[in-house]
Amino acid sequence: MEHLYPEFVLAEGLIQANLLQEIDAPRIKERAPNGAVLISCGDRDRFKHHFTGCNGIVDVHPICLNGGGVLLGDHVDPVRRKVLLEDCVEAFDVKGLSFVLDLAHFPCGKCTKLGYGFRETVVRTLEGKAFLKRSIPAERLKGVLPLISIDWRNAHIKQEHGVKLYAAHLQNLEAIASFELSESGIALPASRQDRHHRHPVESRA
Ligand SMILES: [Zn+2]
């Protein structure tokens, strides 16, 4: 995992810059009272964290393909993107849903295979939200929330460990795509780091 250290540093920088945020669970409950479709990678070492983290907020209907949310991004995999869209709309029909939790995770074997680091993983997932919004009629789609799951275990960057879920927002796509760490890296006051890490949803798995 040594080679992933700079990626985790970038992730930490994005969190500290508030470009990855705590999940607003009450807002999701309000917007998705019937539950939500969860698009996720099926990674056996992390899926239970993704499922319990999301299902602890609202009942979820999982749709899993390797890579999850990144597959909905532009120019990633048109075939799987179409399949995910069709399955999502079908789940809306059969389960009476209208909200999507569009989740990608890091580290992800599929993303590595695609050549994506942390930044690309987030950007592709945000593009996925835009794709769903332009592909599903507005009256059928109440909302899409892109989620980024980070497995901090073995990251050697944080005192605490575990798999944590963060919300990303489409309006921050450009800021994330062009984000640069300052020369001082992630050296923010400890109190600020604490503030950013107390809130994100922790999996109960
Ligand atoms: Zn994965």
* Beta content: 15-25%
Number of domains: 1
Count the beta strands: 6
| H and E string | HHEHEHEHHEEHHE
* Average pLDDT, all residues: 90
Q: In the CATH hierarchy, what is the class?
A: Alpha Beta
CATH topology category name: Beta-carbonic Anhydrase, Chain A
**Main sheet overview:** 6 strands, mixed
Which ligands occur here?
A: zinc ion
Helix-residue proportion: 40-55%
CATH architecture: 3-Layer(aba) Sandwich
Shape: globular
Q: What is the gyration radius calculated from CA atoms?
A: 16 Å
Report on this structure.
By secondary structure, the protein is an alpha/beta fold. It has a single domain, classed as Beta-carbonic Anhydrase, Chain A (3-Layer(aba) Sandwich). It is 41% helix and 17% strand. The chain is built from 8 helices and 6 strands, in the order H-H-E-H-E-H-E-H-H-E-E-H-H-E. The chain has a 6-stranded mixed β-sheet, with helices on both faces. The two termini are 23 Å apart. About 6% of the residues have low confidence. It binds zinc ion. The site of zinc ion has 7 residues, from helix 5.
Short précis:
This protein is α/β, with parallel strands linked by helices and 205 residues long. The protein contains eight helices and six strands; from the N terminus they run ααβαβαβααββααβ.
